[in-house]
Amino acid sequence: MDMSQATSPQGSPTEAPAGSLWRNRNFLLLWCGQGADTLGPRVAPIVLPLLALDTLHAGTFQISLLTSLGWLPYLLFSLPAGILADRIDQRKLMIACDLGRLLLILSVPLTALSGRLTL
Fold this sequence. Notes:
The protein is mainly alpha-helical and 119 residues long. It has one domain. 67% of the residues lie in helices and 5% in strands. The chain is built from four helices and two strands, in the order E-E-H-H-H-H. A two-stranded antiparallel sheet has the order 1-2. Helix 1 packs antiparallel against helix 2. The protein is extended, with a radius of gyration of 23 Å. It comes from Streptomyces benahoarensis. The chain crosses the membrane at residues 61-81.
């Protein structure tokens, strides 16, 4: 029997108590990276139309156009991106795409702070 496992009174193996995941550096890096990676794409479809409505005083048609144009890159680039993803290093591609998305999403508040935000 593996020494990392203990035996319960019923005789079935149970895992030995391990240290907290919050003290594991690899877990923290994964957790922070995945959290940051998930936050932008989940918040942007909600925040951008609200920003257009509140700050730019956009109308219903403009907000619906903004939302539908947000799906345009998926329609245009999905197939070529799939071909490209099969031919290059996926890790580098993932990092480059995440950094590009970070810069695009970060450009919205920076543009708003400079007073040049338009629809």
